[in-house]
Write a structure and sequence with these properties.
Radius of gyration: 16 Å
Number of helices: 0
Shape: globular
Largest sheet: 4 strands, antiparallel
Strand order of the largest sheet: 4-5-6-7
Number of strands: 18
């Protein structure tokens, strides 16, 4: 978990959204011991902790759809489920919580990003959805800081690369979904996005490069 590194969760890399279910182990970092496992119906590709460590999200595939399961790590129990898309994709649905786990951004393989309210003790509900990328382009990474969501996208390798693709990052207002900025960021698919603690710096990682972006503050 990000700010209190007491727990480590490992999402088994399956490479296939339709793979038969997996167990996601949760380890106690101090003792290097397994404390529980969360059983998923399909492969688990993407994982996210809230910054305060109170929530954990994992994406998976069910029989005919993809879904995100929400967990309380301290109680070691599932606390929610979000059905996302019927498009099964090897990249899954990238995930990012806000600081306290009350909202979750989910990137879809159709190039859209969806923001859900995930309150304690209530069912998740969709707040806003935004189409960001073009035909055959997926959302490949998301990050969340304060009132800003960063979303990366582009054509995955399975889409048939031509060599002239642009892999972009879009900054969104987390309340409204309004685009704040768009950068042509990398020459290959962006695998990771992460904000620093105060949200003034965004780091993007692709296959052969890592770049730093000033966001403001």
């Amino acid at each position: 978990s990000p700010t209190d590194p007491a727990l480590l969760a490992i999402a088994p890399l399956t490479g296939n959204a339709e793979t038969v279910g997996v167990n996601v182990p949760i380890y106690d970092v101090a003792s290097n011991s397994l404390i529980t496992q969360f059983t998923m119906p399909g492969g688990a590709v993407n994982i996210a902790f809230s910054r305060d460590g109170s929530r954990l999200a994992l994406d998976t595939s069910e029989t005919e759809t993809m879904a995100v399961y929400l967990f309380d790590p301290s109680l070691q129990t599932q606390v929610g489920r979000i059905v996302t898309t019927s498009e099964l994709h090897f990249a899954g649905t990238p995930l990012a919580f806000n600081g306290d786990g009350s909202r979750l951004a989910i990137g879809y393989p159709d190039g859209s990003v969806h923001l859900f309210d995930t309150p304690v003790g209530a069912d998740p509900s969709e707040r806003v959805a935004v189409d960001l990328f073009g035909e055959n382009e997926i959302v490949s990474a998301v990050a969340y800081s304060g009132d800003v969501i960063a979303v990366a996208g582009g054509v995955p390798f399975s889409g048939g690369l031509r060599g002239d693709e642009v892999f972009s990052i879009v900054l969104l207002n987390a309340e409204t979904g309004e685009a704040l900025a768009r950068w042509d960021a990398h020459e290959t698919l962006i695998r990771d996005l992460v904000f620093n603690n105060d949200g003034t710096l965004l780091i993007s990682g692709a296959d052969t490069s890592v770049r730093f972006w000033g966001v403001g503050g």
